[in-house]
Amino acid sequence: MPCKNIDYSGQDSWPEIKKWLDLRKNPDQKVDGIVRDILDAVKSDGDQALIKYTKKFDCPIFNMDMLKVTADNLSLAYAEVQSEDLEIIEESIRNVKDFHRRQVQESWWTADEDGTILGQLVRPVDRVGLYVPGGQGGETPLISSMIMNAVPAQVAGVKQIAVISPPRKDGTLNPYILATAQILGITEIYAGGSAWAIGALAYGTETIKPCDVIAGPGNIFVATAKGQLVGEVGIDMIAGPSEVAILADESANPVWIAADMLSQAEHDPLAASILITWDKTLGDKVKEELRIQAKKLPRGEIALQSLNAWGAVVNVPDRKTGIDFSNNMAPEHLELAFDDPWSAIGLIKHAGAIFMGHHTPEPIGDYFAGPNHVLPTVGTARFSSALSVDTFCKKSSLIYTDQNYVSRHGAKIARLARLEGLEAHARSVESRYK
Q1: Separation of alpha carbons 32 and 49, rounded Å
Q2: Is the pTM of this model over 0.85?
Q3: Which of 28, 119, 382, 414 pairs as cysteine with 330 (C-beta 3.0–4.6 A)?
Q4: Among candidates 93, 214, 209, 108, which has minimal Cα distance to 155?
Q5: Which has the closest alpha carbon to 337: 322, 359, 316?
Q6: Using an 8 Å Cβ cutoff, are 164 and 129 in contact?
Q7: Is 46-235 the same fold as 4-27+240-382?
Q8: Per-residue pLDDT band at 30 (split at 50, 70, 90)
Q9: DSSP states along 324-349
């Protein structure tokens, strides 16, 4: 049985299902202490800590000369990548840039007749650090992660972008990571992984300058490090295991649905792939397809682990109840696999990204269409959003008032200050009109 069956009839059914899904959130508490020690070591020992941890876990021959990627290495990597692949990467970058340009917010202000000026200044942060996972031994580079994190920072106007990625056994980075950086115009690149890389971006070392915002996905050590650094630097989000929910009816193709579920399940044994359907036969057809297709996948064993633990066919009486389940789950990815998805869009309240209709599988958004694939997970789409240009900006309020304003309103402001027991606040205002 590749995944379980769940019956959902309404809100009364949700608490038990939620308990099951929430089990994916439980991190390994032992990681907290390990990560804290690593961050402390990076903070105190700088480059030497980076070299020590990288030699131990990634590259036994690692040394200071390998820490920073040179311009020559960037050029050589670019030349190594097939021209057809470079063209695909360039087109993906164009699409992602076009989407994110529409997110840019302008500074603004208003002037009242009495001369009062109020407004908001929108400015990029000075420096961003991007973590790009190396994949399996550096041989499955996360090109899309580089694009999805770098482009909104560039569109926001960030002037300094540093990238760090785990080296391969020989101390080099995958040429696809470097070629993508070259296309993006990013030249500050370092070799380093896990929590020590995040610490270097946050605290800085002799070689790496500290950053204002850190973004990029990673394993439990990366996520824990980012979590422990909240308040010292800005972060994109603390992402949990990934998930997809698919709302589907009798018009859905079970072959396609199974392929979509497997595309999520192959990520990680903790990934959740949930089919929600009001068609009585679709679930059985999809389960059979999951068995057939999983056998043909290089990561089929991981996908089956994921499906066995966190896959489900949720049987609901009708579409409205299915949407109710989805809103409770607030999934990272939501596919609407029926003929008229637009008829349901007004009812969808919580989802990181929504994929409309039979011909919009999740990987289109992951790699190419333009929207960001860094999305809120494990229910956090109830209150948070995708990575965006805003992630790399800050907003300052602008206030200008003159003597007349203070004279007219000063007593009211002083009264509010005294109600809060803040006498100096009151006198600060009063000193300007008494």
Answers
A1: 18
A2: yes
A3: 382
A4: 93
A5: 359
A6: yes
A7: yes
A8: confident
A9: HHHHHH--SEEEEESS-GGGTGGG--
Q: What's CA 2's distance to the chain center, in Å?
A: 28
Instruction: Find, among 270, 377, 314, the residue nearest to 23 by Cα.
Output: 270
Q: Per-residue confidence at 301, pLDDT binned at 50, 70, 90?
A: very high
Q: Which residue has the tokens 């990571």?
A: 177
Please determine, looking at this structure, whether the domain spanning 4-27+240-382 carries the CATH number 3.40.50.1980: yes
What are the tens digits of pLDDT across the range 236-276? 998 889 999 999 999 999 999 999 999 999 998 999 999 99
378: left (phi over 0), alpha (psi -120 to 50) or beta: left
Q: Residue 359: name the closest of 245, 243, 252 by CA.
A: 252
What is the percent of the chain with per-residue pLDDT over 90, rounded to a whole number?
93
**What positions carry a catalytic annotation?**
332-333
How much is the pLDDT for 27?
Answer: 62
Place of tokens 């820490």: 67
Q: Which residues touch 171 (CB under 8 Å, ≥6 apart)?
A: 59, 61, 62, 63, 66, 191
> Can you give the pLDDT at residue 29?
75
Q: Which fold has domain 46-235?
A: Rossmann fold (3.40.50)
pLDDT of residue 400: 97
pLDDT at residue 26, as a whole number:
67
Strand-pair partners of 276: 247, 314
* For the chain, domain boundaries: 4-27+240-382, 46-235, 401-430
Distance CA 225, CA 210 (A): 15
